[in-house]
Amino acid sequence: MLGHLLGRTRWPIALDIGTNGIKMLQMHRVGGGIAVLACQRWQFPPSAGTDADTRRRLTIDAVRDMLRRGGFRGNRVVSALSCEQLKIKNVRLPDLTGPVLQQALHDEAHDRFGQVFAPDQLHFLHAGEIRQGSEAHHEFILLAAPSEVVEGHYSMLLEMGLRPEHIDAEPLAMFRPFARHLRRRADEGEISVVVDLGHLSTKVVVARGRAPVLVKRIPIGGRDFAEAVAKQLDLSYEEAVDLRIQFLRDHSGDRDEGQDSAGAEDLNSVSWTILDAVRGHVEELSREVALCLRYCSVTFRGLRPKRVLMTGGEAYDPAMIRLLGEQLGVECAIGQPLRGIDTSHVEFEGDRRGMLAEWSVCVGLALRDEQADRPSRKKRHEADRLSA
Predict the structure, then answer these.
(1) Per-residue pLDDT reduced to its tens digit, 283-338
(2) How far is CA 15 from CA 219, 273, 345, 348, in A?
(3) How far apart are alpha carbons 192 and 335 in whole angstroms?
(4) Which of 11, 33, 176, 381 could form a disulfide with 369 if both were Cys (CB 3.0 to 4.6 A apart)?
């Protein structure tokens, strides 16, 4: 494993390769604060399709181009494996320590996922102690990456001309920007829920203090919403995507300045149709998130959040915010991963009221050095390793 980079003011480049596009971000320390040094964003063209080789080549070319024109410094990189690439499972074990615990967790991963994982392909988090009758057990979150996935990702980074320093897990990166604000002793019992609404799926992280207790991937995302709109309005998928983008801009305050009132009325006239089209998927998503919260409440005795933070490219949809809040009985708000970070020297494409919720994974990757540099940072478990 490569060591953390202590004392450096310029951090590695964060690289978030998503289904729809790529985000790159680099931060540096300025005095006692943190500022964004450079950022770039690129979208896959519709012609990219789903062919893995085609998308890999497009990804490599796009990152090389962003490196040339984006103002990034150096070639050190931190990237992540997506939830679709990872195997994730909560497991319970008796009170074990040291090598016995590590072996038990590797055995659990083998039994649950049907393969053997090297130490640097298995990451585990201690979710907490639970009681089963009169006995104390411990719950752990396993995040495992098959060797072919890690090797393929690593070789792609090298082909881009980058020097990999860490390969993180997407759900841990997406939670990190919000965990950084939980520093007080009173925050240790704070229950946080981050729901990342992506194109293919939704990722849920439930945490107590800064420690995740549940990571869940739900196979409902923006693609499902666009397909539902296309079916409801008898549109092509591409037309439905464009209509939803217009709808989100209109309702997020990011409306084009040149749009006249008649155009706004036309857009509002289909708003309820769009909401009706996606309602079924949103209600199903709400039920799945509610099951996550119920599991945590039962397992960890009364754990319940005060609010849910929404991130990801679909987080600006008012239908999501309102319906999820109603279903869960908890306030839902758009998360702001760059809160407290100076962004005055760069421009973020598609900035919606400065929230930038879709940047949560990339920001979390960029913040790995802040986590390492913090003096009060607790020593990680020696087997906590999913990093390259």
Answers:
(1) 999 999 999 999 988 888 777 888 899 999 888 877 678 888 888 889 999 999 99
(2) 23, 37, 19, 15
(3) 11
(4) 11
The β-bridge partners of 77 are 13, 164
Structural domain containing residue 252: 185-338
Q: Is there a single domain that holds both residue 105 and residue 198? A: no
* Rounded (10°) angle between helices 222-233 and 271-299: 150
Q: Classify residue 188 by its DSSP letter.
A: G
Rounded to whole angstroms, the Cα distance separating 300 from 208 reads 10
Classify burial at 3, counting beta carbons within 10 Å of its beta carbon; exposed 0-12, middle 13-18, buried 19 or more. exposed
Give the torsion through C-alpha atoms of 322, 328, 331, 337, to 10 deg: -90
Angle at Cα 317 formed by Cα 316 and Cα 321, nearest 5°? 90
| Distance between CA atoms of residues 386 and 388, nearest Å | 7
Please tell me what DSSP assigns to residue 10.
Answer: B
Q: Does residue 11 sit within a domain? A: no
Quick check: pTM over 0.85?
yes
Nearest 5°: the CA angle 122, 126, 132 is 120
Q: Do 134 and 193 lie in a common domain? A: no
